[in-house]
């Protein structure tokens, strides 16, 4: 899969809660460079940063990375990486694409590998990650997206009877609400996606779906249109940097 895999990091400077977020300084290094280095460390394929910012492209080039310039009209990271993919691989040699958010500077590289694992099963269109919620406050927090799914076998992708410690789920829904109800674990969705190329092509050409608009969760567009998403259950949730407080926490985690 390595020769056929692209890790694409979409990045722009228009974040409202933390302006110029990709260029935020962490120990003298822009955040986007921290993320790029972790993607390279995963060693699963070519790594690019897809951006509409010359400043972002410049800092990536300065460390020997590859930046691909894209239009500034994209509303989602999926659209941005789709444009970049077409620019660097018009012949279609790349088969798998990882959409890696540029605000995950503490990400463990192995999680990128974990995200690709379900795509070894031909019935899976899109793969992603989740971790069991351990903190009670997260169960009702609408900013913590929950992945709801049924356990499946890691090899065959078929329903699995042993649900005590599932390693993989077939996604049935994603929600900001507390779900499912009743006793049992809840899963914190981690916004890293692995796509088959055909699935990415189809996804970006679909219109926004009703539940996607209601929940403000892009991945629901895929489920509402019959695409299969499988979720690898991992042990840790990487810190996503959205606010100045998040940035300070990332600095402490990476520099202490």
Q: How is the secondary structure organized here?
A:
Elements: E1 5-11, E2 25-26, E3 29-30, H1 31-42, E4 46-51, H2 54-62, E5 67-69, H3 77-88, E6 96-99, H4 109-116, E7 126-132, H5 136-139, E8 146-151, E9 168-175, E10 187-196, H6 197-204, H7 210-215, H8 220-224, E11 229-234, H9 244-255
Parallel strand pairs: 1-4, 1-6, 4-5, 7-11
Antiparallel strand pairs: 2-3, 6-10, 7-10, 8-9, 9-11
- The strand count comes to 11
Order of helices and strands: EEEHEHEHEHEHEEEHHHEH
Number of domains: 2
Morphology: globular
Could you tell me the CATH topology label of the largest domain: Spore Coat Polysaccharide Biosynthesis Protein SpsA, Chain A
Mean pLDDT: 94
CATH structural architecture of the largest domain: Alpha-Beta Complex
Strand content: 15-25%
The number of helices is: 9
Spatial arrangement of strands, main beta sheet: 5-4-1-6-10-7-11-9-8
| SS class | alpha/beta
CATH domain class name of the largest domain: Alpha Beta
Assign a percent range to the helix content: 25-40%
Main sheet properties: 9 strands, mixed
Uncertain parts: none
| CATH H-level superfamily title of the largest domain | Spore Coat Polysaccharide Biosynthesis Protein SpsA, Chain A
Distance between the termini: 36 Å
Radius of gyration: 18 Å
